[in-house]
Amino acid sequence: MSCFNKKSIEDIDIDGNRVLVRCDFNVPFDDNGNIANTKRIDESLKTIKYLISHNAKVILCSHLGRPKGTFDMKFSLKPVAKYLSSVLNQEVKMCEDVIGKSAKSICASLKCGEVALLENVRFHKEETDNDPNFSKELASLADIFVNDAFGTAHRAHASTVGVASYIPAVCGYLIQKELSFMGKALSNPKRPFVAILGGAKVSDKIAIIDNLLEKVDALIIGGGMSYTFLNALGYSVGKSICETDKVSFAQEMMAKAKEQDVKLSIPVDTKVGQEFSQDTEFKLVDADKIPDGWMGLDIGPKSCELFSSVIKSAGTIVWNGPMGVSEWPNFANGTFSIAKSIAESNAISIVGGGDSAAAVEKLGFSNKITHVSTGGGASLELLEGKELPGIAVLNDK
Ligand code: AMP
Questions:
Q1: How far apart are the first and last CA of the chain?
Q2: pLDDT digits (tens, 9 = 90+) for 157-211
Q3: Can you give the pTM of this predicted structure?
Q4: Is 18 part of the annotated catalytic residue set?
Q5: Active site residue: 69, 100, 315, 377, which one?
Q6: The CATH classification of domain 2-174, taken from the options 3.40.50.1260, 3.30.2420.10, 3.30.450.40, 3.20.20.140
Q7: Any atom of ligand 1 within 6 Å of the Cβ of 375
Q8: Residue 367 neighbours by CB under 8 Å, 6+ apart
Q9: How far is residue 18 from each of residues 52, 120, 122, 220, measured CA to CA in Å?
Q10: Which of 68, 107, 321, 395 matches a 20 to 30 Å C-alpha distance to 238?
Q11: Any residues with CB less than 8 A from the CB of 100 and at least 6 apart, and which?
Q12: Architecture of the domain spanning 189-383
């Protein structure tokens, strides 16, 4: 896939040039207006420090929240500039606007190794419209564009796509890392290649299941989506989440797995609750014996064992989506057990999606996973086999 063969900041001469870097500084704030979690900013530091040390005039930009295309102080990036100044140990010059007087004059007077931060690009509605004039103005601030915002790479906006029409465009370290792990896994995986999918709905992951069945050796399906597959086998699933209009799709996918010689595993037992509530009464039952009036809220221990034996044999593992309602302690075991099996395996492991990444982090396994993906929507689209617009526009190697 050409999407995985893009130039990075190491493939372009940046010395003395103005470099516009699209970051993902979309951080959460607490009630007092302080940054509640700096992870996204910290992850961008490697690219920023490389540019500083290679004599670039660094111009950072990002979105923050959804300000609806107008200036709104609540969504200002000022606190980000303050935090960046402290961790970079140098002033990060905060612009009062995005393409206005302040941005133009600060960017024009930057010296090599200095850093500026534009205001929230979503203060202009032209950003999400991918407006060509706005993109051109943004590009005119710099000589080179670096995209390092993987989380928004699946959106065709001015600061992720439009700007690349006017100046050379390459990726930063964060996107490079995502592409090298996901790209290798999807195009040339160490086998056996095992994918594990979970989460609420089959309908959200139709394209992924279809695409992965052509690439993997084994596919494990857990979480809410597994009840549609159990129903497709003719089992009654009680009150479990089940998309009746997707039962025939599930049957097609089971047939496709057979055709492609993919080992498809679905739960053999499940923890059922009486209602969708975290303190509901629960019990363990076999997957073909879900009683009427009960709903499956997690996979059971026999399924954990079955899935774990497939995981143990893997050369590459891709995991996206929880095995049950992992937000609730009574129904988190399945997800935690899968996280543990992946952490203990010697395979190349890639974890994406909020709940799966959160489980890995909560258990302290992040350092035992080869790569935890930073972009939920973007990593799902890569798994679907789609080319992400914010990556497609970058210059090829
Ligand atoms: P997704 O965003 O598709 O990855 O789905 C994540 C959500 O799926 C989480 O909020 C889980 O609580 C939910 N989920 C997982 N298993 C089940 C289940 N058996 N029944 C209902 N919801 C589930």
A1: 13
A2: 999 999 999 999 999 999 999 988 988 888 899 999 999 999 999 999 999 999 9
A3: 0.88
A4: no
A5: 377
A6: 3.40.50.1260
A7: no
A8: none
A9: 11, 19, 22, 47
A10: 321
A11: none
A12: 3-Layer(aba) Sandwich (3.40)
